[in-house]
Amino acid sequence: MGATSPPTRPPASLQATGPPADSADRRIVRSAASVIRARHRKQSTTMTSHPRLHLALGATTVLLVATAPSPARAAEDNVPVAWGEEAARIVGGERSNTCAWPTTVAFGGCTGTLVHPQVVLYAAHCRANWSSVKFGETYSGGGGFSVATERCEVYPNGSISANDYAFCILEEPVEDIPIIPPLMGEDTEMLVPNQMVWAVGFGENDSGSSGTKYEVEIPITGFEGPDNQFIAAGRDGKDGCVGDSGGPLFIDLGDDRGWRVFGITSYGPYPCGAGGGWAQMYLAMDWFEEQSGIDLTPCHDARGNPDPGPNCGVAPLDPGAGGGAWPPETCEFGPMTDGNDDDDDGDDDDDGSDDDDDDDDDDDDDDDDDD
To answer: Fewer C-beta neighbours within 10 Å, C or N terminus of the chain?
Structure first.
């Protein structure tokens, strides 16, 4: 956390057009850009962009389409927002298997992601006063378990326009769920157009009585917003939707390196299906770590510089497979990576060098004997 160099930036091929950032070193922007505002305006009488909270339909939907209201009601009431019969879920996807994507949690009409045994990241527009988060497959159904929060905090003035970042610290650590680490450093260079990623979130099932975890594979389509702060993903009827706000985008690093989480669901047009915006997690990592006082990046410092710790490289290889049943003790979370393979290889190389030296010494001894 003490490093001073800037983080890895999105590739040049994805740079957004528009005015440059005030400083090349600035990573968390405090003003809205026109590209985000444009997506937040009414586009027609049937479609507009809005935060992806669960919102009641009927009369409330008419108001939403006309004015794109603030999601403040969720925070003020501290109750789920319209886990109702008509609310939408992740579109174009399918219900997740039991125990799949176990770090994806539900609370108050939003979704969040466990990135440390005691820290959940989510979106600022979901607000801060949440008393607990729910692990499992449904928000209010059987199975799974809830964990009380110690405190929650949102980025100052964070919204769907900029800095849509927030976190909760849990009262007790959740030690028996495998963590998918945040994407950091050079690995962010994988975020390029047409890269396939997975969105996961809690939405309505057909019965309408409770939020259910759904998943969908979608392509990255570009970057949006101030300083390219939001990643755009989804199209052709596959997308996140209302109720997924704060939830994750996951990416498979390949080569048996496991999965990483990198996005926080923020906004998109309604009706859903045309794609939306996800706040890039790594751009706010220094704020997350400074405000929480917890190291969330096992292989890097908060600016993306290599800084491996004991859990570096440990990640699930197939977090979407699932199996078994809640609680965690009876879930099947699947295999994990081996961890610090590079460090182990380095040790082997050192040992090999020593062996070579020993061989040289032996050769010298042989020469002496010949003499």
So the answer is: C
User: Which structural domain, as residue segments, surrounds residue 54?
Assistant: 12-329
- What is the rounded distance in angstroms from the CA atom of residue 84 to the CA atom of residue 208? 5
Residues 6 or more apart whose Cβ sits within 8 Å of residue 164: 123, 124, 125, 155, 158, 230, 264, 266, 267, 279
- Residue 48 contacts residue 41 (beta carbons within 8 Å): yes
Total domains in the chain come to 1
Using an 8 Å Cβ cutoff, are 69 and 125 in contact? no
Nearest to 307 by CA among 8, 3, 25: 3
Contact 71, 242 (CB under 8 A): no
- 370 found inside a domain: no
Distance CA 236, CA 220 (A): 12
| Contacts (Cβ under 8 Å, ≥6 apart) of 203 | 54, 87, 88, 89, 90, 211, 212, 214, 241, 242, 243, 244
Domain-located, residue 371: no
CA 19 to chain centre: 27
Q: What is the CATH number of the domain that holds 176?
A: 2.40.10.120
DSSP 64-83: HHHH---THHHHHHTS-S--
**Model confidence pLDDT, tens digit, residues 337-366:** 988 644 443 344 444 444 444 444 444 444
Q: Is residue 338 situated within a structural domain?
A: no
Omega cis (within 30) before 181: no
Which residue numbers in the chain have pLDDT < 70?
1-89, 203-210, 340-371
Residue 112 tokens, joined: 């969040």
